Structure formats: C-alpha cells, structure tokens
Amino acid sequence: MKIGEGSVVEAPIDQLLIEKISDPQTIEQLVRLLDKLEHITFLFDMVEHFMRRGPEIADSINELIVILRQSLSKPEYAMRFERALTAVQQMQEFLDSPQVQELFKSDVLDVRSVQMVGKVSRSMLQATAETARTGTKRVGLIGLMRALSDPEVQPALNFVLNFARHLSKELGDA
C-alpha cells in the first residue's frame, strides 16, 4: 500500500479490481452484459458500417439540397409550391370550419350510417338497371296493394315507416 500526501491510503490496482469483480452486483451485471454481447456486437457493427458510409450519405444529402435549391429557383416550381401551400391552408380552414366540426360530431360519419348509405346506393343502382332492362310498367292500385304484401318489399316498407317516424321526431326537435 502507498500512503499519499493527503494521508489517503491507496490499494494496488490489482486488489481493487479483484474486490470489484468479487462484488455480487458486479458479477450479476457482467453476466447480463455477456448475455447481451451478441446484440452489442451487432449494434457496434451497425454503427461502424454507418460511419464508413458517412461521407457517401453526406454527399447524397448535399446533392439533394443542390437539386432542391435549383428547383426552387425556377418560377414554375416556386409557383407549384405556393399553390400546394395555399391548398393545404384552404383544406385546414375547411376542416376547422364550424360546419365540418359539427359534421364530425354528428352521426353522419358513423360506420353504420356509411354502411346504410352504401346499401341504399346499391339498391338504387340495381333498381335503375332493372328498370332499364324491363322498362317502365304501369302499376295500379291493386298492383300497389299486391306489392305492399310482397315479403321482399316488407323489410323496406318497415324501414321507410320507421324512418318517417324518427324523422318526424327529429324535425319536431329541430
């Protein structure tokens, strides 16, 4: 052991190392480190590869900046950029408008509403195609009564009646 000027006793480095390695906490940390050694090696390899490619990456970034500067100096590109920026600002104003915010709060964009609109659209297209294929037929009062009792028409008729009832309630609340 050496005794220094400040009366601090220093142990030889070998002894300090042996004490540190013998510490259970140090042993546990070394075991964890050794378990992760493969990952650490992989990480170092990635960093080393990145560092080797650093000049190439920097050159690519430089070239991109030069191209952007040249492009932005051309009037047509500057005008396109301004138009794009204006379009983005107008879209933001549209999305921030009270009407669109109210639309987002309503049930219009609910999945069930969108599915129902899809069903109605498909039904309209099928009805249009069928009418075009078969032609317009004249339906009298008896034909209408017969159609109203058709089992295929009943679900739609119930829907229309329920819709009319609920719409009346909504309009009464408005």
Based on CA atoms alone, the radius of gyration comes out at: 39 Å
User: How much helix, percentage-wise, in residues?
Assistant: over 70%
Structural class: mainly alpha
The N- to C-terminal Cα distance equals 94 Å
SS strand fraction: under 5%
Q: Which spans of ≥5 residues are poorly predicted at pLDDT below 50?
A: none
From the spread of the alpha carbons, the general shape counts as: elongated
Pattern of helices and strands: EEHHHHHHHH
Strand numbers in spatial order across the main sheet: 1-2
Strand count, sense and barrel status of the largest sheet are: 2 strands, antiparallel
Count of alpha and pi helical runs: 8
Number of E-type strands: 2
Walkthrough of the structure:
The structure is a single chain. With 174 residues, the protein is mainly alpha-helical. Helices cover 81% and strands 2% of the residues. The protein contains eight helices and two strands. The chain has helices at residues 13-22, 24-35, 37-73, 75-96, 98-105, 111-134, 141-148, 154-173; strands spanning 2-3, 9-10. It has a two-stranded antiparallel sheet with strand order 1-2. Strand 1 and strand 2 form a beta hairpin. It is elongated. The chain starts with a strand and ends with a helix.
